[in-house]
Structure formats: structure tokens, C-alpha cells
């Protein structure tokens, strides 16, 4: 899988947490929980992130945590039930993704293998970054995002 190494700045975020098996349920969480909350608080048209807090290969599916996040400006209040957090600054391997939600796990798997094989991987949060003008094709479910893995 092709990727670039980029220096990314720290980003202040508001997030809602999903807990349970990864896969289709995360897409439903975005659709049924996160997006309505995002709209209610005027946070549409901002960069969003998906952050897997646990490795589904080593964490029981019922205990896996995933945060749906949106960038928020400094000084803006974060309204409950959302919590405030940050995406850390640093060097990241960044790969473009274009596909449907059911293709995301295989893309992550290939990307992890490539970055580890290249000896680049470093500890830290891995995340998906969705552009402020994010759209999903309603007919095919295809969308674009970036996959980001911290590197040395």
C-alpha cells in the first residue's frame, strides 16, 4: 500500500465513544448517533476522525472502543454527552483510502502490514481522517478518507 510520511499538527476534538465489535456497527454509530449530534451542535463541514482505541486482534469484541470525532476550535465549549480530547501532533504514515465501509478493515490490515514491514511504526493512536467536505455516494457507499499511523 502506498503512503506518505507527514508531520501533522495537534488537533482539538470533541468525540462520542462507541463500544462493541468493530465493523458495520461503527457505520451505524456514525449515522444514528454521531452525525445527528454533530448537526445539532453546528459542527458540520469540519474535519472528522475515527479513532480505534483498541486492537480488535487482542481485545474482546465487546470491549473494543472507537471514537467518532470532530475538530473544534480553541475556546469552543464541548457539549455533553461529547468529551474533549486531542489528536496528537507528530509524524504519521498517511495512506489515501477510497472504498466502502466494508473495505476499511482490509485496507487497515494491508496498511499496518506495510508500515510494520518498512520498520516505520511507532506507538500511538491510529486514526481515519475524513475531509470537511466528506461525502459518501448513496448508491455505492463509496467514500474517501486518509488512514494515519504514527511513525518514527
TrEMBL record:
Pfam families found in the cross-reference section: GyrI-like
Domain AraC effector-binding: 1-152
InterPro entries in the record: AraC_E-bd, GyrI-like, Reg_factor_effector_dom_sf, SmbC-like
Superkingdom in the source lineage: Bacteria
SMART domains given in the database record: AraC_E_bind
Protein's name in the database: AraC family transcriptional regulator
Amino acid at each position: 500500500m502506498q503512503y506518505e510520511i507527514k508531520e501533522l499538527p495537534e488537533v482539538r476534538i470533541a468525540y462520542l465513544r462507541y463500544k462493541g465489535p468493530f465493523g458495520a456497527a461503527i457505520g451505524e454509530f456514525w449515522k444514528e448517533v454521531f452525525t445527528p449530534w454533530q448537526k445539532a451542535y453546528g459542527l458540520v463541514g469540519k474535519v472528522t476522525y475515527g479513532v480505534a482505541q483498541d486492537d480488535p486482534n487482542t481485545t474482546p469484541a465487546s470491549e473494543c472502543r472507537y471514537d467518532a470525532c470532530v475538530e473544534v476550535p480553541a475556546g469552543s465549549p464541548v457539549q455533553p454527552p461529547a468529551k474533549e480530547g486531542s489528536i496528537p501532533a507528530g509524524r504519521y504514515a498517511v495512506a489515501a483510502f477510497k472504498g466502502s465501509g466494508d473495505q476499511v478493515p482490509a485496507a487497515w490490515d494491508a496498511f499496518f502490514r506495510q508500515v510494520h514491514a518498512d520498520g516505520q511504526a511507532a506507538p500511538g493512536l491510529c486514526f481515519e481522517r475524513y475531509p470537511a467536505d466528506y461525502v459518501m455516494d448513496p448508491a455505492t457507499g463509496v467514500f474517501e478518507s486518509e488512514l494515519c499511523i504514527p511513525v518514527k
